[in-house]
Amino acid sequence: MTFTFRTVDPLQDAELLHSWVTHPKAAFWMMQDARLEDVERAYMEIAADEHHHALLGLQDGVPVFLMEKYDPAHRELVGLYEPRPGDVGMHFLVAPTDTPVHGFTRAVITAVMAHLFEDAAVERVVVEPDVANKAVHALNEAVGFVPEREIHKPEKKALLSFCTRERFAAATGVAA
Fold first, then answer.
1. Considering 86, 100, 117, 142, which has the largest number of Cβ atoms within 10 A of its Cβ?
2. What pLDDT digit, counting tens, does each position of 62-91 carry?
3. How far apart are CA 69 and CA 144, in angstroms?
């Protein structure tokens, strides 16, 4: 599967993103009760933030997933671990569908990771999914993440995990 990426347009994409983040399958995104205006505001804040970026993943020009990347020295994980130069944080959300395609989510996380590692400055990807999100832990492991420890964030208990470009390449066969 081939994906392309484009920056989220907070106003143009808000309705689409709202339908994704409020879907029952997006419970771990923690926006279940968000109103359209809440989603617009959240993504306008991200668009204005030099340390946080939101991208849509497209398949044949159609948005099929959301990816966020952030600088963990400035967002999300400040004070929760010791960031290294070359660290980048990541979140991803696959669009809900009534017709799941086997292997699709794994293809998405692989594309997200490859996209992050296209930046030569990125040495390691950091994630902090909810400890209860067993499905994403398995996906993370499949692309080379190694869990380090549980951390307590204000909104959740999270599993802090890391993936180097070498581990990603070894796990997926994708050059990073």
1. 117
2. 999 999 999 999 988 888 899 999 999 999
3. 18
